[in-house]
Structures are given as structure tokens and as C-alpha cells.
Amino acid sequence: MKVYYSLDDFSKRPAAVVTTGTFDGVHLGHRKILDRLNSVARNFKGESVLLTFFPHPRMVLQPDMELKLINSQSEKIDLLKKTGLDHLIIHPFTQEFSRTTSLDFVRNILVNTIGAKKLVIGYDHHFGRNREGSFEHLKEFGPVYGFDVEEIPPQDLEDVTISSTKIRKALSEGDLITANEYLGYSFPLTGRVSEGEKLGSKMGFPTANILVEETYKLIPGDGVYAVEVIFPSHPEDLYLGMCNIGIRPTFGGKFKTIEVHLFDFDQNIYGEQISVRFKDRLRGEVKFAGPDELRQQLAKDAEDARKILELT
């Protein structure tokens, strides 16, 4: 998969099969669209192209909402690489770009810049200024500009339509079972290990404090989770552990931290990048009477986490 960070970097293709959208999460519904996109491209002897945007349009148009995203940009690229996509265009989304009309978007971008001969879009897809463009518009534009369009119905799981919004809500509530089921993979959180106060070490549960650099990245709801961990520097090694997200009320904490305790692990990893895959939530964050009571609970958490992780 070739990645381009602007439409200006992309050279028009003679037989592009195109889809467009934000694709935050690259969830099961998105992958249904991409599977069809790649299938059409192969049958058409063309090349599959995804046009997406960064920042997310709602972050530009509705900045007060403080939208958090399921994937960082690097996570999204890694997920898309696994789909078999030929070309990924990540175009900067700005206020000026948001004023592009649906006609200009189709004619100048999809057709003249990318070379679209076929479009594959998701159900209820909208595009252009004020989201004025729709599937009906594309069907009207198709014969004029020489492309075919296909709409993919929504992907359902147990009669519930999958969407990035529903996944964000599940993650915010700590419902990793639902979020992971909709995603089709374990929700990842990637960051660097920074030095903390070593409170966990004093109780026999040393932790790695994770600093997530992308401020727009969604963090699951406060609580304790069973997790798998890999280091991008040697991704073939998988570690098991548990992660606490919260303010550490037992110690009077005021700032949210992300701390990971790795089972059967004793290495200095300060400064290393770490990727945490969330499997399930063990419990919410609780204020204990003191360190001894917390230590007893952490031992139980570790036992529960091991049971969950051995089954996954």
C-alpha cells in the first residue's frame, strides 16, 4: 500500500476504484467496504484507492466538541495496510477544503485528480460542502463524468448497525467486549514509557507509565483492564498484563495516568514505545483504605486478568 499525505502527491490513475470517508477505527463495517473495493478493483483490473482526511472533519468544523478518535494516524495506516488496499491518500482537512461543493469534489478530485472509474461507498455516505452530496448525487454525476457507483449496506452485528460513534461510546464506558467485537480486533493504545512515582513497585506491582502523545486519541474509561502488550521494536514477542487508567484515588491523585503492569517481566523499558491491546475490563477505579488493601485487590486483579488472557 502506498501512502500519500496530500492529493497533490497523487498521480492520476487510468482505472481507479475509489472510496472516501474518515474510516476511524477501520471497524468491521469499514472492512466490508474495503473488501468490496479491492474485489471490484481486481475484477476491473484497476487499483483501489481510499481518500481519507486528517484532521477528522468534525475536529475542524466543530472544535468545541473535542472529538476523540479510535485510532491514531499511525494505527490507522497499519490497519489499512492489512486490508490489501493499493493506495491511501490522507488529505489535510481545512476550513477552506470544507467549502468544496459536491460537484467540485466529484469532478475535480475524484475524477480529474484521482481518475475514478468506479466508486464504492458506504450506506448513507455524504460529502462536499455541508454534506450536500449523497448516493443519489453520485448516480446523477456518474454518466456525466464516466464512472459507476455502488453503495454498500451497513454492516450489522446481532441486528445492531456498527458505527465509529457506537465504538467510541463503548470505549468511553469501558465496554471493551462490545468495542472489540465491532472493531474486529483488540483496541490498541500506543505511547512511550515515562518515569512515574514508582508507587506500584513499592507494593510489588511495578508499572510502566504510558505517555500517549496524540492528544486526540480516545482513552478508555477509568478502571482496570486485562491487556496484551507488544513492543514495536520486537513485535514478535507478546506479553500479558493489566492496565490501570485513572487518578489513583487511594494516593490522592489528581491527574489521570495510564499504568501497565506486565506479568513475569523485569526489564528497564523507560523511553521505549509500547502498544497496549485492551481485552476486557476487570473493574472500575476504587479508592481503598490504604496500600495494604489495594495490594490485596491488585493480586486478585492479576489472577482475574490471567484467567481472561489465557482464554483469548
Topology at a glance:
Layout: E1 2-4, E2 16-20, H1 28-44, E3 47-54, H2 57-61, H3 73-81, E4 87-92, H4 95-98, H5 102-114, E5 116-122, H6 135-145, E6 148-152, E7 156-157, E8 160-161, H7 164-172, H8 176-183, E9 187-194, H9 199-202, E10 208-211, E11 223-230, E12 239-246, E13 257-262, E14 273-283, H10 291-311
Parallel strand pairs: 1-4, 2-3, 2-5, 3-4, 5-6
Antiparallel strand pairs: 7-8, 9-10, 9-14, 10-13, 11-12, 11-14, 12-13
Sum up the structure in keywords.
Rossmann fold, Elongation Factor Tu (Ef-tu), domain 3, 6-stranded antiparallel beta barrel, 32% helix
Description:
It is a single chain. With 312 residues, the protein is α/β, with parallel strands linked by helices. It has two domains: 2-161, HUPs (Rossmann fold, 3-Layer(aba) Sandwich); 186-311, Beta Barrel (Elongation Factor Tu (Ef-tu), domain 3). It contains ten helices and 14 strands. It has helices at 28-44, 57-61, 73-81, 95-98, 102-114, 135-145, 164-172, 176-183, 199-202, 291-311, and strands at residues 2-4, 16-20, 47-54, 87-92, 116-122, 148-152, 156-157, 160-161, 187-194, 208-211, 223-230, 239-246, 257-262, 273-283. The strands form three sheets. The chain has a six-stranded parallel sheet, sandwiched between helices. It has a six-stranded antiparallel beta barrel with strand order 9-10-13-12-11-14. Helix 5 (102-114) crosses helix 6 (135-145). The protein is elongated, with a radius of gyration of 22 Å. The two termini are 30 Å apart.
